[in-house]
Amino acid sequence: MERHIQVLLNRLSCASITIATMTLLLLFIQTPQTCIPPNSPPKPHLKFPKSSCEFSHRELQPLEKKNKRLWSTKDWQKKVSSYTQFFFSLRDLDLLNNRTRVLCVSAGAGHEVMALSEMGVKDVTGVELVDSPPLVRRADPHNLPFFDGVFDMAFSGHFEEALIPSRFVAEMERTVRPGGVCVLAVGECSEEEVWEIAGLFRKSRFVGAMNVTLIGLKMTRIIMRIRIPP
Ligand SMILES: *[C@@H]1O[C@H](CO)[C@@H](O)[C@H](O)[C@H]1NC(C)=O
Ligand SMILES: *[C@@H]1O[C@H](CO)[C@@H](O)[C@H](O)[C@H]1NC(C)=O
């Protein structure tokens, strides 16, 4: 009788070890599925993805708080609304709508990304040497981590900070599809300077230049359209 119980107990503990092992294995296997892989699609989520493994809850909290604080400042809101006006002018030219896939190069802290998203543009990607999640991811404007022709529009308000202007422009042109547009906002320039900048675009034709006020600065908006190969 006692021996019988011993055998039963042994079996039970065997079973519970098996269950524990399987649970651990399952946990081990399943955890990565709930994570956002580091190379997930470059969509700007206005709300930070809650399930990302890259940020523990301890880190997530200050980031959300920091963004909330930053985004509620007068300066932030003024800049975003200035960019919104700027992009509405592109919409009025039929260059932008809700389905336009837009890349913002050297997007800084992401004012333009937020402006576009709030306007209803669904697919906006912002890149900068230093990332500002969730609006802007890290990428070198001289070596963009995107395939050829995946965007309808590339925009930059920080072209003048480019280390190698020709390379910066070439990467914008490469990632925009034929027929798509590249838009620069640069410090106000003369006609000659506009031609100089437009001349850097090897695969595009000049659409137009116009003096505008953007984030309180006098700037010139230059629009180029990627040529469609014959
Ligand atoms: C996007 O769609 C909304 C309504 O569906 C419209 O109000 C808004 O102006 C559109 N934005 C653009 C950029 O076309
Ligand atoms: C923009 O303003 C500058 C300086 O006033 C002027 O030289 C240039 O021609 C203007 N550009 C356009 C496109 O109106």
Automatic annotation (TrEMBL):
It comes from the Eukaryota. PANTHER family: F21J9.14, S-ADENOSYL-L-METHIONINE-DEPENDENT METHYLTRANSFERASES SUPERFAMILY PROTEIN. Residues 103-184 form the Methyltransferase type domain. Keywords: Membrane, Transmembrane, Transmembrane helix. One of its GO terms (molecular function) is S-adenosylmethionine-dependent methyltransferase activity. The chain crosses the membrane at residues 12-29. Pfam families: Methyltransf_11. It comes from Liquidambar formosana. This is Methyltransferase type 11 domain-containing protein.
